[in-house]
């Protein structure tokens, strides 16, 4: 293509996910070049008119046959030039059209491939990507299950709200807010956590595997994952030292709570092991859910996920009973900050420049 | 129904389960961690299993298993047991039945 105005961008520079933009660029090119050729023709038309007029003007003067010949030659040249330009413009136009159609074809093929992939993944019940501040999948929170899509969207909002609560707690503690008001803030924060447990239970009904694997969490949080959430005992262990002053009774109560949590977690972990074993055996034997009449597997997973949420909830409740409102505020602040830092860590790791590959050149 | 109540009163700590139920398994493990050896009746292995299941539902259980009886009284299912355990009341209740110290 020799036209100075066409800026042809090869597909690989555009990136494969942007076919629509590419097509519209092509259309623009197409139209602008067509109009350029049209304007060239108009100019030629004007020239010819002018020449015709001058030709007619000179026609009236007798004895100027040489002038007439010159005019005729100039006209013939102009006509030839115009015809050549037309041919050139037509050729360019055909080339552009061919390229445009090829572009459309390749996009069509790509679209069919993507549709196939989506269907295939649907059958397998997979989900693509997840949200969470740390994960790098911003444009890709596409799930094939509306219950899970809803959950992911709600979780995004839940996170924002949780961050607001954390900030409010920090401000309240540093500004020495009164106990009553602080108590309300604490209750609000706790209810917000309970809300998440409810959301997770609902999501487990849509896809228990998803909830069990914690796909909506950032990568650093998933590192600590235990059956769809954090271990309550870990939370206690890490964050209790952050509460400065506690009575002996409180220390003793928290110690007992930690022990009970540990026991509950052990029991649930073993229950989970048994469930994994059952699922694994079913799959190995080729007995998938749809083929049997009893939906045992998914019900069992839902119940287990719900129970884990319940244990988390109960742990929070017990802590709130043992601690004063002010202590609970400090504890919840530490909890919120802990999760925020984990998410920041995920984000930091995900956005590091990649390490240079080692020994590519032998 | 009579079978259920009879079995429930036979020993201090009785759990009705199903062999395939992993939550029942978890509850059993929990009791053992506390130092209690409950009597476990797998109702899916019992010829009267169907009636027992219905009876348990009628007693107020949302899910028939696991159903935990302490001292002949129905304590509830997984949620109730977990809640009691975390609040410390379960261990208190089970003190008379502990076979080994935890």
UniProtKB/TrEMBL annotation, chain A:
It is found in: Nucleus. Keywords: Activator, Coiled coil, DNA-binding, Nucleus, Transcription, Transcription regulation. Its main location: nucleus. Belongs to the bZIP family. Residues 97-124 form a coiled coil. One of its GO terms (molecular function) is transcription cis-regulatory region binding. It comes from the Eukaryota. One of its GO terms (cellular component) is nucleus. PROSITE patterns: BZIP_BASIC, DOG1. The keyword Ubl conjugation does not apply. This is Transcription factor TGA1 isoform X2. GO terms for biological process: DNA-templated transcription. Residues 148-352 form the DOG1 domain.
UniProtKB/TrEMBL annotation, chain B:
It is found in: Cytoplasm. One of its GO terms (cellular component) is cytoplasm. SUPFAM superfamilies: Thioredoxin-like. Gene3D superfamilies: Glutaredoxin. InterPro entries: GlrX-like_pln_2, Glutaredoxin, Thioredoxin-like_sf. Residues 13-74 form the Glutaredoxin domain. The keyword Cytoplasm applies. Keywords: Cytoplasm, Redox-active center. Belongs to the glutaredoxin family. CC-type subfamily. PANTHER family: GLUTAREDOXIN. NCBIfam families: GlrX-like_plant. This is Glutaredoxin domain-containing protein.
